[in-house]
Amino acid sequence: MVPARTAYPELSIAALTVILGAARPVGAISLHQQLLRRGFDVSEATVGRLLRDFDRLDYTTLGITTGRRITRKGRAHLEALRNGRSRVEATQAIDKHLRADTLSQVMSVLLARRGIEREIARAAAVNATKADLAAIRERARRIDSGEDLPGIHELLAAAAHSPLLEAVHRLVTQDPQIRAALLRLTDAHASALDRPFHKRIIEALSRKDARAAESAIVQHIDATTAAVRKSWSALSGGSKKG
């Protein structure tokens, strides 16, 4: 059974769905029975309070009898709840595949980053401000001089000035296990990977050349992928295929 207190959005979705699909106004007793059949551990009193909340918020309206019908506002609320659930499920599905236990999983993450970051690079070439470019230059300079700092990828994502691209990039790159694995696998190649990339991407951003910026990030991710494969093979003695 689904506890009512821990599943209020799901309970609301189920209740409004029942009311929406009913041929006649739905009463509290009927709704309670249908919610029980759907696996919700709710009392009649809880259902009654839920319906009163729906009425107060204008999600339902009381019919000529004691049953409720869903209003236009209720339909819009139900659609918003369903969309919110879909977004949560999509995020959970992505998170489920963000692992670094095998080589194939690490390759999948890098492939996802390749697709996202090439769009970020193009957007940054168009949208980056002077302040964005100065921050990227300074971070790159400090990394190239040997300081142990995060790479410029997060600054590049911010310079794209696209909240959606930045959010997706953060979702794919912020997992601690993956970050640690990539650092471990690319540490020996860091200088060879970073310096050419920094030079190419900064030149592209300075010229506002979206194609060159995209090419720079693709080359960098491809080089990182090759380095990861080489390091994984060395660490596993060639026996761990992923």
The CATH topology of the largest domain turns out to be: Four Helix Bundle (Hemerythrin (Met), subunit A)
**If classified by CATH, what would the architecture of the largest domain be?**
Up-down Bundle
- Largest beta-sheet details: 2 strands, parallel
Sequence of secondary-structure elements:
EHHEHEEHHHHHHHH
Termini Cα gap: 39 Å
Instruction: Tell me the number of strands.
Output: 4
Q: What is the residue-averaged pLDDT?
A: 84
Query: Can you tell me the CATH superfamily of the largest domain?
Result: GntR ligand-binding domain-like
**Which descriptor suits the 3D outline?**
elongated
Structural class: mainly alpha
Roughly what fraction of the amino acids lie in strands? Answer: under 5%
Strands across the major sheet, in which order? 1-2
Number of domains: 2
Specify Rg, calculated over alpha carbons.
26 Å
What share of the residues lie within helices? over 70%
Query: Are there runs of 5+ residues with pLDDT below 50, and where?
Result: 1-7, 238-242
CATH class term of the largest domain: Mainly Alpha
Query: How many DSSP H or I helices?
Result: 11
Overview of the structural elements:
There is one protein chain. By secondary structure, the chain is mainly α. The chain folds into two domains: 2-90, Arc Repressor Mutant, subunit A; 98-236, GntR ligand-binding domain-like (Four Helix Bundle (Hemerythrin (Met), subunit A)), CATH 1.20.120.530. The chain is built from eleven helices and four strands. It has helices at residues 8-21, 28-37, 44-56, 72-97, 103-127, 130-144, 153-159, 163-173, 176-186, 190-207, 210-236, and strands spanning 2-3, 40-41, 60-62, 68-70. The strands form two sheets. A two-stranded parallel ribbon has the order 1-2. The two termini are 39 Å apart. Mean pLDDT is 84; it is low at 1-7 and 238-242.
